[in-house]
Amino acid sequence: MKNDLIFQLTNVSLEVNNLSILREINFKVYKGEFLALIGASGAGKSSLLRMFNALSSPTKGQITFRNQDIDTDIQSLRMNVGILFQNPVVFAGSVKENLLAAGRWKQNIAQTLDHELIHSLEQVGLNNIELKQNAKDLSGGEQQRLALARTLINHPQVLLLDEPTSNLDPKLARSIMDLINKLRLELQLTVIAVSHDHLLMRRYAERVILLSQGLIVGDGSFEVLDREQALEKAGLLESEITDET
Amino acid sequence: MKPDFYVLSWNDLLVSLVFIAFSIFLIKKWKLGLEQTLLIGTLRTFVQLTLMGYVLTWFFDQQHWAFMLTLLIIMIIIASYEGTRRQKNEIPHFFSAMLVALLGSAILILGTILLFILDVEPWHSPYAAIPIGGMIIGNGLNSTSLTANRFIGELRHREQEIETLLALGATPKLAVYDAMKASIHAALIPNINAMMTVGLVQLPGVMTGQILAGIDPIIAVRYQIMIMYMWFTTATMANMIMLAIVYRQFFTSKMQLRRELLRDNA
């Protein structure tokens, strides 16, 4: 089990402008897990997710990646830990240029063959897209898939999801999450997903970390959290009722 | 008959006050309420430039190279301060970035002009170094101020794009490369446009001044061509040096974008 340890967080706290965003966070993430970070808005889940890719750092505490401090080699960490944002970033240019954006600083980029790129598109279900097509012409769902393909070109071990389907309609959101889950199993990826949509996450996440006002208030499967009525206590179900009215 | 040159006497200058009188007449007629400000402006133009004339005359009499260098460095410090003051956004170490950018471009471009193009003897003659140095510094200041502002705008606009590239493993330099390119592009376009239309639409000030002072237009034109090339190179060099220093200020040592610097504090 020790070799399967991907992330370990020890007393992680984050303060921004004297405001406490995260407080004394401790947990471990193991290889192959689908972990959902759930919480009401402002609970600190996106701030926490960014730390796994070292896009921000804790003000206190330590994070390790494969038993090494996360800051040891940030570029290599980032290639191993891909992230998908809420709004997919699509660069001006062709689909091919977008895929190569992931590796344009690598010297061997010229040797990346088209068939490798086409394979990465097929991996994410973009079978009818041509490499020379203008990326900005793709639909929202296709752009998110393209962003996923671009991340996969780095052959990451971990995939971070920052509400990547919240701007898509429910059917499309499910198909993208199904795809990510399928890729997780095929490629033995570890997935850490931030979402306010716990109903969607119930389909995929084996483990949930529930955050409220920067603190962990629950850690376990949805069944365990449901038994403890943890989601209600974290104000999640209330906000859902408010959203509907 | 071609005059040797037109000398403008103090009396002639008094006559030019007719322009101001005419402007005041128009301003009054339109009730713009700018009379007093214009009168102060008129007086300040006269006093400041007259004083500068005497100061320059004294400067030009100085022959020691250290004097000329000190003066250029003072001009660069003032320009860097002015550039920092003009900056609406907080850019850490912007003063130093301006200082290095202006100093670097002034040394290289002024040095080339004095030593290899005009072959000034001695090289530190203030007659050449001060006005040309002033043009380089002034042009560098204007161009870098615009570029820095544009660069912040690009960073704000491309925040997620930059973080996406960083998250994929790009270095900060590569993550902001497109933003730097767009800012320099925007700064150089007016210079290129000026090169396209010069002589067709308007005659530049330096050339006009030289022709009025009796210099052969062909020679005046040569000066102007050199100045146009110099302007462009100054803008390119100063902007590149400035951005190479400035972009680093927006990242932490852990290659993280300092997003707090992109929040609007204007």
Structure description:
The complex is a heterodimer of chains A (245) and B (266). Chain A is an alpha/beta fold. Chain A has 10 helices and 10 strands. Helices cover 35% and strands 27% of the residues of chain A. In chain A, a hairpin with a 2-residue loop joins strand 4 (60-65) and strand 5 (68-69). Chain A is globular. Helix content of chain B is 75%, strand content 0%. Chain B has helices spanning 10-15, 17-29, 35-61, 65-86, 94-117, 126-157, 159-167, 172-175, 177-197, 205-212, 217-249. The longest helix of chain B has 33 residues, at 217-249. Chain B starts with 9 loop residues before the first helix and ends in a 17-residue tail after the last helix. Chain A binds chain B through residues 53-57, 71, 74-76, 78-79, 82-83, 85, 87, 89, 91, 101-102, 104-105, 147, 150-151, 154, and chain B through 160-161, 163-171, 174, 178, 252, 254-257.
Largest sheet of chain A: 6 strands, mixed
Number of domains of chain A: 1
Low-confidence stretches of chain B: none
Using DSSP, what is the number of strands of chain B?
0
Biggest sheet layout of chain B: none
Judged by helices, strands and strand pairing, the structural class of chain B is mainly alpha
Name of the CATH superfamily of chain A:
P-loop containing nucleotide triphosphate hydrolases
Count of DSSP strands of chain A: 10
User: How would you state the average pLDDT of chain B, rounded?
Assistant: 90
Oligomeric description of these chains:
heterodimer
- Would you list the SSEs of chain A in sequence order as H and E? EEEHEEHEHHHEHEHEEHHH
Specify Rg of chain B, calculated over alpha carbons. 22 Å
- Secondary structure tally, helices of chain B: 11
**Uncertain stretches of chain A:** 241-245
Order of helices and strands of chain B: HHHHHHHHHHH
Residues in β-strands, percent of chain B: under 5%
Number of domains of chain B: 2
Give the CATH architecture of chain A: 3-Layer(aba) Sandwich
